[in-house]
Amino acid sequence: MKRRSPWHDYHKKGTYMLTLVVEGRMPLFGKLKGNADDLEDSPDRPMVEFSELGQCILREEIRKIHQHYPKIEVWKTCVMPDHIHMIVRVKEDMNEGRHLGHVMAGFKYGCNIAYWRIFNMSMKPRKALSEAGYNDKILFCDEQLDNWKAYLDDNPRRLLIKRQNPRLFTVMQGLVVAGRRCQIVGNRFFLDIPDKKAVIVHRRYSEEETKKLSEEWMECGERGGVLVSAAISPKEKEVLREAMDRGYRIILLRENGFPKMYKPAGESFDACSEGLLLQISPWDFHM
User: Fold this and answer.
1) Cα gap 49→34, rounded to integer Å
2) What is residue 81's DSSP assignment?
3) What is d(CA 217, CA 240) in angstroms, rounded to the nearest whole number?
């Protein structure tokens, strides 16, 4: 998902979360270590032990962005073994003919030079460090920024959990569910549990009807049944959020499939890691 948003002007001021990935997902920036259950102040907390290249990019190359482009500030970074996240702020409109793509091209070239130097790659042509392009997310509200920061802080822990529970995070293709070939992620054994309730809230339902149904759904979750929903309406989302908070089993139906390297976000990630969530889509991933 590296295409730019065609409606957005990338030379104007704005805030972005940028992601660059090492070619072939090679863990050239360091290695993951620690215990996923340890707290932030623990010496064994989830963290990345940086390689020489990882340290160089974190301490030198990222800092050069503001040196070369004073209008741009790097607010937060997360260097993982095989990719980099950065939250950057373009404080003012950039000079005519310049946009965010030029900044990232310069940053990637600086990383290439460090890569070639550290690995003694003097012969040409030399392989680039990262994949072509990059991913950007545009900030639209302050709450989104808080979520980004939390995501970057939690990235090492999430990767540890994913590695410890690969079967819960692997996208399975072509599994037949109710006569449809589907993509699924999560605890597929929920399909074998007969006690299921569909969480559907129509607009015509009165408050009393919705309350009665909600009680039935929570009773199903309490006895170990599975709640199934596409979570389309606000009330459906509210019910599933409460069920997730209570630790109930959930099957979530998705309109879209799963992109390469997919993993759930936020509370869905934690539910998936605990074996409490199954996501199903009868469609392939699309843009």
Assistant:
1) 10
2) S
3) 9
| Type and span of the H or E element at 19 | strand 14-21
Q: Which residues contact 225 (CB under 8 A, 6 or more apart)?
A: 193, 195, 196, 197, 249
Amino acid at 266: G
DSSP letter at 46 equals S
Full pLDDT tens readout for the chain, 287 residues: 667 888 999 999 999 999 999 999 999 999 999 988 887 778 889 999 999 999 999 999 999 999 999 999 999 999 999 999 999 999 999 998 899 999 999 999 999 999 999 999 988 889 999 999 999 999 998 889 999 999 999 999 999 988 888 888 999 999 999 899 999 999 999 999 999 999 999 999 999 999 999 999 999 999 999 999 999 999 999 999 999 999 999 999 999 999 888 888 888 998 999 999 999 999 999 87
Cα angle 71, 77, 78 (rounded to 5 degrees) comes to 160
Place of tokens 């990232």: 104
Instruction: Give residues with Cβ within 8 angstroms of 77, minimum separation 6.
Output: 58, 62, 84, 85, 86, 87, 152
Encoded tokens for 229: 């929903």
Q: Which letter, b or e, does each residue of 181-210 get, where b requires 16 or more Cβ atoms within 10 Å of its Cβ? A: ebbbbbbbebeeeeeebebebeeeeeeeee
pTM of the prediction? 0.79
Which residue from 272, 88, 77, 89 is spatially nearest to 155, judged by alpha carbons? 77
Other beta carbons less than 10 A from residue 131's beta carbon = 16
Hey, what are 207's tokens?
A: 């408050």
Q: Kindly write down the DSSP assignment for every residue of 140-177, as one continuous string.
A: -SHHHHHHHHHHHHHHHHHHHHHHH-HHHHPPEEEEEE
- Beta carbons of 217 and 239 less than 8 angstroms apart: yes
